Amino acid sequence: MHILDLGNNSISAGAKNIEINLIKNDQEDLVILELKDDGKGMSEETIRKAKDPFYSTKDRGKKIGLGIPFIKELSELCNGKFEITSEVGKGTILKATFQKSNWDLPPDGDLGGAISGLIAADPQINYRFCYKINKNELKFDSIDIVKELGNVPLNSPEVLEWIKDYLNQEISEARK
To answer: What span, in angstroms and rounded, lies between the C-alpha atoms of 154 and 146?
Structure first.
C-alpha cells in the first residue's frame, strides 16, 4: 500500500514518468524502496512539511495523504533511514531503507496489484518498476506493453489483470 500511496503522490504532482525500485539484499540485511518522478517537485520548505502527518497539499475536504510520514516512520522503526530530494519543476526522489530482518518490516503485499493500480489511475504515465532480490531481477516498463498492445488501452480490465498476474508471477520466480 505504501507504493500505491506514494505513486499516487507522483500522479498528483503531474509526473509523466514514475520509476519504482524495490531492492532486497539478504547478505546486507537491507531493503531499499526508491521512487523517482518527473513531477512538479517540491521546495525545501514543502519537503520539510511533507514529513509532517498534519500537513497536506490536498483540499481539506478530500483524503489526506499520509504516505510520506508513514514510510518515514516505518523506515526509522525498521532501523533504516528516509531521504527525500526534490527540485521544483524537475521532480522528486524518495528513498527509504529498512533492515530486512526487522520484526516490524511488513511483507511486500500485492506488488503486481499496486503497479497495475497505478496504471489504472493514469495510463498515460510511463511506469518503470524494478524488483531485485539478491542477484535476481525483474524489470517492467509500461512503454514496452503499450508498444505490444497497439490500439488496446493500457487500462483495459484484461490488460490490468494480465499486468498484475505477470508481475506477481515474475516476483515469485525472482524470490526462488
So the answer is: 6
